[in-house]
Amino acid sequence: MNTRFALGAPISATMSKAMQQATCSCGFSVTSENRNEVVKVIQHHAHDEHGKEMTRDDVLAMMKQA
Ligand SMILES: [Zn+2]
């Protein structure tokens, strides 16, 4: 019996293998297969570099498959 399940496997691995990419208006670009990661990095970047708050929807709107 296989009792290992998916312990330790990243949740994102089961979601999508496509790479997601978002590019800021300043040229800063993030590429990850985990779109939550892209959202997080872009939000952090926008806040730190531009003093701008971006919602998850804002980031998803600028995201595309890479
Ligand atoms: Zn930027």
UniProtKB/TrEMBL annotation:
User: Which superkingdom is the protein from?
Assistant: Archaea
Supply the InterPro entries for this chain.
DUF1059
State the organism of origin. Haloferax volcanii (strain ATCC 29605 / DSM 3757 / JCM 8879 / NBRC 14742 / NCIMB 2012 / VKM B-1768 / DS2)
The protein in question is named: DUF1059 domain protein
